């Protein structure tokens, strides 16, 4: 056993020196103290990097096909009443959603932005007990209601039982409604009176729409859109004014779910116009994004960049109408963000490198200072006795 122990002693890479040969110096103490502080500082810096996750970013070609795009919005129009503010969405595939009402909340606001009333869009309107029948008389007891389409019927069995159905019948004929005060259904729904009651108010509209994952647009316009012969026409209500101020504030606009670090460049954007009938256009480039956090939770969302343009338009034009328009296109490149920790072995390697490096550098500095001091001392002694 003694032979084995002796062989192990010969392998010792750290031979010990008798304490009688040690010499401690003041400069060595200062160097030890300074190196200890540096070592602690670097240790806690590495520890902070180890405890906090880092995000790795990759760009890949988006090979996914189909799917939907979820758009969330919250906009305020300080001088456009809720009753005449409409939302439409159209995509490049030809799919159209006109006068969207599902998943939409409209809030009447005053000129200070204070909410007067909030209601889901599309909720039914009040009815009277005896509406006008198709034959011209009023609804009698036990008689089935069949409202007049005011000349837009395509067959003897057609009925228009709401203001919206009259508009749809006129749309199919390619006609325009010039005065809704003459339509019994619209009067019953109190639509015109509602608009007049909201005169001078603004509107906050928020909600979400789901569209095909292809290039398209959605827009907020003062009026109701109708489609005929591949052109969109604005069937505006017969109100006292034909001028509309589209000053607006975008409180929120996102394309998909939120994730940590997501920045939406249009959030908080505010435009105020002194003139009427402005067409404000936002051109949005949507970038598909996959975010995976440190716990492995994955969020499929989108980032976007934007440019904008606005111009004055002539009221009544079928090609340019006042409103706020968002034109979006899908980027072919997908961004992936992945949160991850520094591996523990890398952390330990960095700690060992810090400790060993500081000790080595401190030893070199101490030896250099010590030898310098000895040379100075010898010169002093030679000068004294020489």
TrEMBL record:
Protein known as: Endoplasmic reticulum-Golgi intermediate compartment protein 3-like isoform X2
Pfam family, one: COPIIcoated_ERV
Domain Endoplasmic reticulum vesicle transporter C-terminal positions: 149-366
Compartments where located: Membrane
Keyword Ion transport: no
One GO cellular component term noted in the UniProt record for this chain: COPII-coated ER to Golgi transport vesicle
Keyword match Transferase: no
Entry keyword set: Membrane, Transmembrane, Transmembrane helix
Domain Endoplasmic reticulum vesicle transporter N-terminal, first and last residues per copy: 8-97
Membrane spanning residue stretches: 21-44, 344-369
């Amino acid at each position: 056993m003694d032979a084995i122990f002796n062989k192990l002693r010969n392998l010792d890479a750290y031979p010990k020196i008798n304490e009688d040969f040690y010499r401690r110096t003041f400069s060595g103490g200062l160097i030890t103290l300074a190196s200890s502080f540096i070592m602690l500082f670097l240790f806690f810096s590495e520890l902070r990097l180890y405890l906090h996750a880092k995000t790795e970013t990759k760009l890949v070609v988006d090979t996914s096909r189909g799917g939907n795009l979820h758009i969330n919005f919250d906009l305020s129009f300080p001088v456009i009443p809720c009753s005449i503010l409409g939302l439409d969405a159209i995509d490049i595939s030809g799919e159209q959603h006109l006068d969207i009402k599902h998943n939409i909340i409209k809030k009447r606001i005053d000129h200070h932005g204070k909410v007067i009333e909030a209601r889901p869009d599309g909720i039914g309107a009040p009815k009277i007990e005896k509406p006008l029948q198709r034959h011209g008389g009023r609804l009698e007891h036990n008689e089935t209601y069949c409202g007049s389409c005011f000349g837009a019927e395509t067959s003897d069995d057609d009925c228009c039982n709401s203001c919206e159905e009259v508009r749809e019948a006129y749309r199919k004929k390619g006609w325009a409604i010039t005065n809704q005060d003459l339509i019994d259904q619209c009067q019953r729904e109190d639509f015109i009176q509602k608009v007049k009651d909201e005169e001078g108010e603004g509107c906050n509209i928020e909600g979400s729409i789901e569209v095909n994952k292809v290039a398209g647009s959605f827009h907020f316009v003062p009026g109701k859109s109708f489609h005929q012969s591949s052109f969109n026409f604005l069937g505006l209500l017969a109100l006292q004014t034909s001028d509309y101020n589209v000053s607006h504030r975008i409180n929120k606009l996102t394309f998909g779910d939120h994730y940590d670090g997501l920045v939406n460049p249009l959030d908080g954007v505010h435009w105020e116009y002194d003139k009427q009938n402005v067409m404000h256009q936002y051109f949005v480039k949507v970038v598909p994004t996959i975010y995976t956090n440190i716990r492995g939770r994955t969020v499929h969302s989108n980032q976007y960049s934007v440019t904008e343009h606005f111009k004055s338009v002539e009221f009544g034009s079928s090609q340019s109408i006042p409103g706020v328009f968002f034109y979006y296109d899908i980027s072919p490149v997908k961004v992936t963000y992945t949160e991850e920790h520094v591996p523990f072995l890398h952390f330990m390697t960095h700690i060992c490198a810090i400790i060993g490096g500081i000790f080595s550098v401190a030893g070199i500095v101490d030896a250099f200072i010590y030898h310098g001091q000895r040379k100075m001392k010898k010169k002093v002694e030679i000068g004294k006795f020489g």
